[in-house]
Specification:
The protein is of the alpha/beta class. The strands form five sheets. The chain has a seven-stranded mixed β-sheet with strand order 14-15-16-13-12-17-18, with helices on both faces. α15 links the parallel β17 and β18. α4 crosses α5 and α5 packs parallel to α6. The site of nicotinamide-adenine-dinucleotide has 33 residues, from α8 and α9.
Length: 534
Amino acid sequence: MLTATRTVTPFRNEPIRDFSDPADRRSIEAAIARLREDLGRRYPLVIGGEKLHGAGTIASINPARPSEVVGVVDEANLEQVSQALDAATAAFASWKRTTPEERADLLFRTAARIRETKDDWNAVLVLEVGKPWVEADADTAEAIDFLEFYAREALRYASPPALTPIAGERNHAVYLPLGVGVVIPPWNFAFAIMAGMTSAAIVTGNTAILKPSSDAAVIAARFVDLLHELGLPPGVVNFVPGDGPTVGEALVTDARTRFISFTGSKGVGLRINELAAKTAPGQRWIKRVVAEMGGKDAIVVADDADLDAAVAGVVAAAYGFAGQKCSACSRAVVDAAVYDAFLAKLIPAVQALKVGDPSEAGVDVGPVVNAKAAEKILGYADVGRGEGRLLAGGKRVAGDGYFIEPTVVADVDPQARIAQEEIFGPYLAVIKARDFDHALEIANGTEFGLTGAAYSRSEERLAQAEREFFVGNLYLNRKCTGALVGGQPFGGFNMSGTDSKAGGPDYLLLFLQAQSISRKVAAQAADDLAAGMD
Ligand code: NAD
């Protein structure tokens, strides 16, 4: 049952483990072994709290061992999509009347349970999307952070904002939920983004239909199960897996949908934005679209940078989770004065990365998520051979898994395809700049604007980067990945999205609408009000 009395402590980020402690190592190994005993389990749809079989099934496979089926998820047909929209619409009538305290309490209890069973969630991430242990632990920690942070934020938004007093009237404003939301996450932060977008939608009093990514549907199914186990009423979150162009678009275009919370690629985000802008028959609102999309993130290295730190930052940001982060560094823009020295340090560091099956310890770079992704990235390896000097990688690693060697292409023109298009793999283009001004111009020279970093020992240059480097998340003298909830609200400019700043103080507003209420008051009360006694 939902309960609502608790003392809320200030938000703190969940620590991320490095697995150097043998007890942590044993714990995750045991969790992976437990999950391997339970492979192939079927995860039904959840509509109005009921578990249902769908039109077909989607097999979620381990990209490191494609013959290993992590789970089989039911796929909704269009009638079930409609049932889910009805269930979410019906549940909204009562869920919107629950108190923010009750809703926040559910998130706090969900976070607590995930914390207690962390390595079981990590194991799913390792096997379902190929995350090395530390990356899996960071994803789970971020999911916990979103739950903890949005629970506190919902409590904050429950207090009315201060308004300017008006004589003769008593005014206040309240934040109301929007209605039925469609939540469409990507597979890469399979836990954090999926749980973050879903929990933000419901903690503000909306109901949701979660259409997970087909590459990461098992972790989503488990999360939805946990919410129900902890007392989430039926219909508040409906679990409706399916293909994007059919199930996703049916949800996006339906008149019952009030808002869409999307994170994924630029192409799909723009398509959803366009479809949602069209009014369906019977639709009574303008749909709100939050679309967080791709990046072509750069790290700028000035001639006075600490090169060891810059190389470490580039390597971590370019190859962590095999470069499959929207924030991943895919361009290193290096001042000509230190260009050769930078490459001389970079190449051995890249070649030292251990590529392998992330269910084992000590792996730096795991597989890419599926066969299609591997093919696309290898296609860019061919493009890169024509657009620069291949200094490392560029090939598939022998074996069944979707492993690609960490790749570096140097001497790349800023306008080359591999310097402009999101590749989303372990692939770095290195670009030579004449000076710092030129480097910033190159860094800003794509249609994206998500993350970026600059390394320099000069205060003046760091200040210049602050003024001129146009990205939603800018980092100075550190890597451009690893934003933390609360401290580094996340979201991009330009074609990187709507800059929603997930994990920040403005985020929940995207799931709310404010109602302003003014009441005429008697003369004495109006005088008191004007005198500030109200
Ligand atoms: P994707 O766009 O292929 O898919 C994202 C989601 O959209 C999936 O659930 C998919 O099933 C669904 N979808 C696909 N086509 C659809 C359609 N026509 N209508 C409705 N839904 C549809 O992205 P992906 O491969 O899952 O994720 C990688 C992308 O996400 C990269 O571009 C990455 O940069 C981006 N990303 C951005 C952020 C951010 O915060 N800006 C964070 C993580 C990932």
